[in-house]
Amino acid sequence: MDLRKLEATAEELVAPGKGILAADESHGTIGKRFEGLGIDSTETTRRDYRQMLFSTNGIGEHLSGVILFDETIRQESSGGELMTNLLKDAGVIPGIKVDKSAIDLPLSPGEKTTQGLDGLRERLEEYVEMGAHFTKWRAVITIGDGIPTRACVEANAHALARYAAHSQEAGLVPIVEPEVLIDGDHSIQQCYDASLWTLNRTFAHLYEQNVELSGMLLKPNMVISGKEAAEQSGVEEVANMTVECLLRSVPAAVPGIVFLSGGQSDLRATAHLNAMNSMYDGLPWELSFSYARALQERPMEAWGGDNSNVDAAQKAFAHRLKMNGAARSGSYDKGMEDAA
Ligand code: 5MM
Prior knowledge:
Layout: H1 3-13, E1 19-23, H2 27-35, H3 43-54, E2 63-68, H4 70-73, H5 83-89, E3 93-97, E4 102-104, E5 112-114, H6 120-129, E6 134-141, H7 150-169, E7 173-180, H8 188-208, E8 217-218, H9 235-247, E9 256-259, H10 266-279, E10 286-291, H11 293-303, H12 310-327, H13 335-338
Parallel strand pairs: 1-2, 1-10, 2-3, 3-6, 6-7, 7-8, 8-9, 9-10
Antiparallel strand pairs: 4-5
Helix pairs in contact: 7-8, 8-9, 9-10, 10-11, 10-12, 11-12
Bound molecules: 2-O-methyl-1,6-di-O-phosphono-D-mannitol.
The site of 2-O-methyl-1,6-di-O-phosphono-D-mannitol has 16 residues, from helix 11.
């Protein structure tokens, strides 16, 4: 394992003013997002949509990397160029989602575990050949009546660590994503407790599997109240509770934390990241983004399945990238939204 190379890639992914686009929706997930807008999900529409994102002018200014889905890393653009080359031409690093999705955890109603470890070594070798430099694996933790259970937290933390070790062995930076879901009516304190537990156990397993912390990135949820909670957390409260939770669980050797947006509105996801970066100085890790919905919601809506809307969609995408690029240094202001 070339640790220096892993560290250099991880550092590039959290370079100042830049973040990651998660464009790794499985067929089921992108199908759901397209369906909500009346767009058919076919190999061609998925390609056209992602091609629109990747060929947006100047994306390299605020985008360090893109997480791809298996279909996309093998796909060519309508002009016959590999999709990964569109990214490379823009100065953006291609990465790949390598989990094979979350399934029900046996004997643990309401909980999930993530599959995909079998055959992972061989799949990673192929992704290296195809030009990937980093990988991602998502684990799902649900808050509810009596859950999460120890069985769920341990199973997911163990799988994340096994995946991360495989990824580093292959020379690919792992992005370890333990997501405590926003779904439910739980309080922000319950989210804090579940996140702290999950993160501490995840780092214990990463240590046991010999994962080099300086050659990985963490992709966690923010600490936030449940979507259906009567009392909704404020921006400063989310920033505070999130950073305090991370300070108590994420070793300083980890170069960066790239948040998922998890179903927050795009403006809230930007405001929360901005608040963390403006309220805290001298944190041991970079605080950045690896959003899917919070970057894609508006461009997807503007595109609407019609390639004659590409200009408007790319404008919406470039704008969200610029806003989150500013949030990286705490220099975002809501007034910047209207200046577009
Ligand atoms: C939580 O999902 C990840 C981040 O997206 P959001 O910012 O929208 O929360 C995302 O990378 C996710 O892993 C992909 O969308 C793929 O999910 P599926 O369920 O299709 O594997």
